[in-house]
Amino acid sequence: MPDPAALQARATELLQGLIRFRTVNPPGDEQGVQEWNKKMLEAAGFECEMLSSVPGRPNLIARLRGRSEGPVLAYLGHVDTVLADPEAWTVDPWGAEIKDGCVWGRGALDMKGQVACELAAALTLGEEGWRPESGDLLLVLTADEEAGAEHGAKFLCEQHPDKVRCDLVVNEGGGARVDLGGSRYYLACAAEKGVFRFTATTNGTAGHASIPKIGDNALVKMAPLLQAMADRQPSLEMTAEAAAFLQTLGLESSDPQAGLAAMQEVDDLVSKLLLEPMLGVTLTPTIIGASEKINVIPSRARLKVDCRVPPELGQDHALARIQEVLGTEGYDLVFDDPVVGNRSPVESALMDKIGAFVEREDPGAKVLPMALAGFTDSRWFREAFPECVAYGFCPQRTMDFFESAPLIHGADERVPVEDLGLAARFFADLAVEILA
């Protein structure tokens, strides 16, 4: 197995290099960083190919072939980032400075840090002459994840499925440490909620705003809808991931209300941020618009609502839960490009391997399965290859969930060097064990 200290040093150096490529999306401009990655991987024995749907934005596919047929293990990652406002940072967002035991810079957590660890493991194994006994190790480094993956994972899975077909996927979305009741847990993302955003429209009659009763104000008709969502969320419902989450903690897992109450007693913040979003449909109003002129009573008002739905449940389920809160009259509703949520089984050989690594590295700690309220590129792989098992997991011990989560897409994003070492060991160990 690779030397742990060398792996940590290499992951750190690779992350610094990745951060210094400004791949803010839009426009992305991933060409330079992908060529850099490709050169290193080819030198380590990987077969590499770059595929693009538009010029200058390639996706990199790197394969280390095994000695016989077997499972394909894919390490998935994206190399684009969101923007960064240098004035809001205490360091240069693209300087990749090492300070206070961390690498600082845009993408350190989302998700160039994980890419660096995947690369460190893969490069070191390849250079040391390791090859899978059965199956292949695949690195899929994508463009455009931060803007919806139209030119990234979506493009690959829809247009070039044979190039990225795999049995097992490890991606972003999990791995952070959570301390509960004196025990340590590492989050593992096994599913992602669906996105059923919608526009609610109320109608009235225009008129001059100086005479309030001359018209029928559509904007005022929005007030009951907003108040309804302020007062409550749709009824709780148990999901497979929420049940596994509660069972791991030894809490009530058959009744969602009882399970939530039990979790609130253990840790109210974990209950609000992690468990409650898994327990059914959520509604969050975000954008409202009406008249374009201050002196015109609006005849139409529009409200956009971010609606998230448990995995594998469709539009009918979403609509029923929305109407439970908003009622059925007084507004029109149109869904905006709905996406059904996706999942992998909570229990699998891959989850067992993750759990065994956690126990070796942090005796007494356990893996805590969960569903992500947002979505990642795992969605495209679960959709394209229904039999593949995809999890979000990049172990992170030094910085816990509550410290790291606000830094993602935020100022002063950073990752502890020790966590880079931990994750690089995970990716090296997993490849050797799965592809034995």
Describe the overall structure:
With 436 residues, the protein is α+β, with helices and mostly antiparallel strands. The chain has 14 helices and 21 strands. It has a six-stranded mixed β-sheet with strand order 1-2-6-3-7-19, with helices on both faces. Helix 3 (112-127) packs across helix 14 (417-434) and helix 8 (256-266) packs across helix 9 (268-275). The radius of gyration is 23 Å and the shape is globular. 48% of the residues are buried. The model has no long low-confidence stretch (mean pLDDT 97).
Descriptors for this entry?
436 residues; alpha+beta; 6-stranded mixed β-sheet; 5-stranded mixed β-sheet; 14 helices; 21 strands
Helix content: 25-40%
**Main sheet overview:** 6 strands, mixed
- Could you list the spans in which at least 5 consecutive residues all have pLDDT below 50? none
Strand percentage: 15-25%
Shape: globular
Strand order of the largest sheet: 1-2-6-3-7-19
Number of helices: 14
Distance between the termini: 13 Å
Protein structure class = alpha+beta
How many distinct beta strands?
21
CA radius of gyration is 23 Å
Q: Mean pLDDT score, rounded?
A: 97
How would you summarize this macromolecular structure in one to three sentences?
Helix content is 34%, strand content 24%.
Secondary structure elements and their pairing?
Blueprint: H1 4-19, H2 31-43, E1 47-51, E2 59-64, E3 72-78, E4 98-99, E5 102-104, H3 112-127, E6 136-142, H4 153-159, H5 161-164, E7 168-171, E8 176-180, E9 183-192, E10 194-195, E11 198-203, E12 207-208, H6 223-231, H7 240-248, H8 256-266, H9 268-275, E13 282-289, E14 296-297, E15 300-309, H10 315-326, E16 332-335, E17 342-343, H11 349-361, E18 366-372, H12 378-384, E19 389-392, E20 396-400, H13 401-404, E21 414-416, H14 417-434
Parallel strand pairs: 3-6, 3-7, 7-19, 8-20, 9-18
Antiparallel strand pairs: 1-2, 2-6, 4-5, 5-21, 8-9, 9-17, 10-15, 11-15, 11-16, 12-14, 13-15
Helix pairs in contact: 1-3, 1-14, 2-3, 3-14, 8-9, 11-14
